[in-house]
Amino acid sequence: MIGQGGIGSLIYILDRHIRVKVTTHAIRCIDKAGGIDEYLLKTPYHKMDTEMGLFWKAKIEKMYEELGKMEVVFFTPEDEDRLEEQFREIKLAERAARRDARRKMYGWSGKKDSGADTEGTQGETSAREEGSPDTDIHEQMLANA
Q1: CB-based contacts of 49: which residues, under 8 Å, 6+ apart?
Q2: 18 sits in which H/E element
C-alpha cells in the first residue's frame, strides 16, 4: 500500500499556495527538483497522471514563457543603492504611520509629544511615573513597531 501525505506547496512563479495529496515518493521528487514549480516543469507530459498536474504544468510553462519575453534591465550599483535607500525610507514611513495609528487607536499620546497635544492629558502624564507598568507596556509596543 502506498502511503499518502498531504502537502501544501507554494508555486513561486504564481506566488500562490496549492494543496494537493501526493505520495511520499512524489514529495521526495518535489524536494529533489527544488520545489513544485521545477518538478512540474521537469516532468514530461506523458508521465503526468492527473488533469490537475497537467493544468498546473501548462499554467507554469505559460508564465515562464511570458517572463522569457520580458526585457531584463540591470541597475548600476549607484542606482541599486539609491533604490534600497528609497525602499528603506518608505518602510520607515509605513512603520511610523502604523505606530501613529496605534497611538490614536489606543489613545496614548506619549512622553515626547508637543505641548499642544498633551495639554488636555497633563494630569495623566504626570501621574504616570518612569518605570510604571503602563509606561513599560507602551514602550514595548513601540519597540515592537
Answers
A1: none
A2: strand 16-23
Q: Which residues of 73-96 are buried (b: 16+ CB within 10 A; e: fewer)?
A: eeeeeeeeeeeeeeeeeeeeeeee
Q: Which amino acid is at 139?
A: E
Tens-digit pLDDT profile for residues 25-78? 888 888 898 888 888 888 888 888 888 888 888 888 888 888 888 777 788 889
Q: How many whole angstroms from its chain centre is CA 110?
A: 30
Q: Rounded to the nearest 10 degrees, how much is the dihedral formed by the CA atoms of 91, 95, 98, 99?
A: -170
507530459: which residue's cell? Answer: 45
Are residues 72 and 119 in contact, defined by beta-carbon separation less than 8 angstroms? no
State residue 112 phi and psi, 5-degree precision: -100, 15
> Which of these, 55, 60, 22, lies nearest to 42 by C-alpha position?
60
Domain boundaries, the chain: 4-69, 73-114+133-145
Q: What is the 3-state secondary structure (H, E, C) of 90-121?
A: HHHHHHHHHHHHHHHHHCCCCCCCCHHHHCCC
pLDDT of residue 41: 86
DSSP state of 129: -
- In sequence order, what are the residues at sequence separation of 6 or more whose Cβ sits closer than 8 angstroms to the Cβ of residue 48? 54, 57
